Structures are given as structure tokens and as C-alpha cells.
Amino acid sequence: MTNTAFLEACAAAIGAQHVLTDADDAAPYLGDWRRRYQGAARAVLCPADTAEVAAIVKLAREHRVALVPQGGNTGLAGGATPDASGQQAVLSLRRLNRVREIDPHNNTITAEAGVILADVQTRALEAGRLFPLSLASEGSCTIGGNLSTNAGGTGVLRYGNTRELCLGLEVVTPEGEIWDGLRGLRKDNTGYDLRDLFIGAEGTLGVITAAVMKLHPQPAARVTALAGLGSAYAALDFLALAQRHAGPLLTGFELMSDFCMQLVGRHFPQMRYPFQTRHAQVVLLELSDNESEEHARTLFERLMQTALEEGLVEDAVVAESLAQSQAFWDLREHISLAQSQEGLNVKHDVGVPISRIGQFIEETDAEIAREVPGARMVTFGHLGDGNLHYNVQAPVGGDPKRFLAENEKTLNRIVYDSVQRHRGTISAEHGLGQLKVDEAAHYKSAVELKLMRAIKAALDPLNLMNPGKVLR
After folding, report:
1. pLDDT classification of 240: cutoffs 50, 70, 90
2. How far apart are CA 369 and CA 379, in angstroms?
3. How far is CA 266 from the centre of its chain?
């Protein structure tokens, strides 16, 4: 059947005004967040609800048109960008933007896939609850995208990834059927866990249209601190000490190298570095206490005193106000922006067992220094869950574009080989998309790939759901 027939059928199903074919209208949907990938599409399709999504999927199956599901288009691995053929169609979920229900007694919120993450946080707050998923892109990323990539963020240490915050899903299958799995149950031992198949699948097995997400009580107080340390090894010991002292009250534990802090200071001088001297590593930690701020601050001061006495921490400062706490978090959140200001770099979103982070950094830094003398390491991330953003900046005075062209493949291999030796993962929270699909095939075992391909073939035998992402 012709492309015209497909588009006419889509227009009849969801309204002609929601089938975008004009180049200017479609343009915002065809490139990725980092501007690394630029695709083309037959059209951008914008259904309003689950029934319309199902109708589009059935039409795509009938006309053999591949669909690329897209939420807020904030992904960092090209997972929501169509290829350059112009034969695929983008399926935008932005109009599925209703919060269907908040259940305070069950501590759940049911939200459609296109609801902005910050809006879920706000609606939870209005109900006296906390939705703890927090990302730098929370003002524009969507719940559907968070689920499709199993997003992490700063609260994983206490609350887990998006997968652990989800109780139930509504999904349109590749056949255009609707699976209603919107059950807000903590226990349901009735067979295969279909929910977890779709979370982290990046739209390759079906289209998530709504989800039941866990809520938590709002903490009575949050206390934030920065600590300067001599090494990543000391940071690991400090993490263990903090966990012993604070237990589940410890909600954030972010590691930032000295070079990260230098970059932020260079490009955002208004952001004050709180220490008089520089430290090899800086840790940002936060406690969330359901009792009182006094209780949290007393616990924090006891923790810091012990850490200083044991020589784990060289210096520390505890935020005295919400404004100062936000200033500490701003230092962390501006690292990526400072990198961009500094110039092009080779980015890695890796995960290794927490106990091996110090060794991983030490060994990989040394290997990169031998291979690319002068390369500058931008190392930061969620130490509490083993997720590092391990990025490599060009040498001072070097041409960043030439640096990338000459060294990206070599640096990727060094980093990923080191990750493999340390029993880690090449993608801890950004997904595979099209950026790492070939790398994943290189590092995953034959058995694992065989199982993944069997699942894909069983659910999507025509390969119309986001082809070329996660698996080739």
C-alpha cells in the first residue's frame, strides 16, 4: 500500500491536524537531544489516548510501517530518533498527558506516558507525597521515556531506578492490542512479569501508554553536605560509613572529581566552590529524615565528625539553608553544561560494582593517559549505585573535533574493555538506543543475545517497533 494510504488512514484515526508532514512542524521530532543523530520520517503521529495509539499501531502493522515511539525527546542515546530512510514514522506520546488517579492510601499515582516528570512530582507534592525520581531533564522528559530507558537519577541509592518505582503498566502491543496491567499491587505472583519486559526496552517490544508509579511520604527535612576527600577509595569508605550511620535516610551520594569542579568554576564563576583548598574528589550527600531537621542535622554532624576523625574526609560543609543546599546541587548539575562549554568530549555512562569504582577509575585513567597523553578526565556520578559518567575531554589547546575523530573509537574500547573486566555495564541509565547497540552486541554473551532476540521475535516478528535500537 502507498504512503498516502497510510497517512490518510492515520488522519482518519487521530485527526489530520495530528499527522505532521510539514518539514517545519516535524523538525523538532527528528533530531536527538545531543544533536548527534538527525533522521527523516513519513510523518510525526500525535495520538491523544491509548485507543488512538492502538489504532495507529494496527495501521502501521497493516501497511508495514515501522514506528519510533517518542516522549520528551530528551534521550542521550538516539533511541527516539528515526533513521534517515524517511520510511519510519515517529509516534509522539506527548498528548497522552493526563494524571488519571492519585491514591494516597495505596501511595500510587497513575500517569499517562506523556506526562512530564516534573508534573508528576508536583501532583505528588500536592497530595502530600513524594515521587522521588529526579533527573536534570525533569522539566521536559516524560514518564513513558523514563520507563522505556529505566532512568536512574539522583535518588537511586534509596528509592531505586524507574523500574523499582513502577507497579503496573498499560501497553499497546505490536499487534495493536491493549494490555491493561495497571494494577497497583506490591505482590502479584501469577506468572511471568510482563511489566519488566517493557521497562527498559526502549519501545522495541511495544508502546507504554500509562503506568502506576509508587509514591512515598514527604520527608520532614532534607540536609545536604559537601565533603572533600583525597581519593575515590576514600569516598567508598565514606559511603560505607554514611550507610552505617544513616541507613535508609541516606538518599544521595554523588561523586565529583576535582577537574569537574574546576570546569564548573571556569564556566560558571558565580557558583562558589565552598572549600579553601582543592580536593581530589568531592562528595555531595543528602539525608532525608521523616522525623525532624534537628534529628537529621544531629545525625549528619555525628557522621561528619567520625569521618574527619578517621581521616576519610579532609574537609566538609553542611548546608545551613535551602538556598545553600540548592547551590550544592547546582554544582553537581552544572558539570555537564560546563563540559559542553569546554568543548566536545567522549561521553560514557557506565556502571561497575560499587566496591570496584576506585580500582576502575585508577586503572582506566592510567590506560587512557598512556594512549592519549594530556586527555582530561571528567569523572562524576552516582557513587551510591555504581553509576559513573566517565567522560574524556580533549587536551588543553587541542582541537576537540579532531580529538573526537581520531580517538573516540579507541577511548570507547579502552573504557568498555575496562568495564567488562570489572563485571560492569556499558550503559547504566541512558539506555542503548542506536548509540550503543553495536557495542552491546560485542560485550553481551551469545546466550544473552539469543534470549533477547527470541523475545523480540516473539513479540514483534515484523520488526516494526523501533527497529535498529537495542538489537540489530
Report:
1. very high
2. 14
3. 26
